[in-house]
Write a structure and sequence with these properties.
By secondary structure, the protein is mainly α. The chain has one domain. It is built from seven helices and no strands. The longest helix has 25 residues. The chain starts with a helix and ends with a helix.
Length: about 130
């Protein structure tokens, strides 16, 4: 196995895994711990499954009826790590958002500390 491929697989998987928790978590106060973990795991699994081609070893992409077009596109671009990473990122973002909407929000005091400006945080800490 080419060492550069190994490095990209690690990098692409991490990009896919952290897209949801970091992007959604940095922009939206409603992210929950369960949502962040869901995004992390679903993004990484999506990248690994697509990149490995395992789904297409089990199911013929053309046999999926209305989803055949999407499945065939995914199967065709399995060799492209960028495509796999982008799909993983989309799944990660969607998973983070959906699970965060369905689970109990973080305490408001915690969210305020996370989203407050650095000067406000220092003043609140007495510094």
């Amino acid at each position: 196995m080419n060492i550069a491929l190994l490095v990209w697989v690690g990098t692409g998987g991490m990009m896919a895994a952290f897209a949801g928790p970091l992007v959604v978590g940095g922009l939206w106060r409603g992210v929950t711990l369960a949502g962040a973990y869901t995004g992390l795991v679903s993004g990484m699994l999506t990248f690994v499954l697509l990149r490995s081609g395992l789904p297409w070893m089990i199911v013929d992409p053309g046999s999926l009826g209305p989803l055949s077009g999407v499945a065939e596109w995914l199967a065709h671009y399995q060799i492209n790590p960028y495509s796999c990473a982008v799909v993983g990122e989309v799944v990660s973002i969607a998973g983070t958002y959906v699970v965060s909407k369905l689970t109990q929000p973080l305490p408001e005091s915690h969210v305020e500390r996370l989203f407050s400006a650095p000067a406000e945080t220092a003043e609140a800490a007495g510094g």
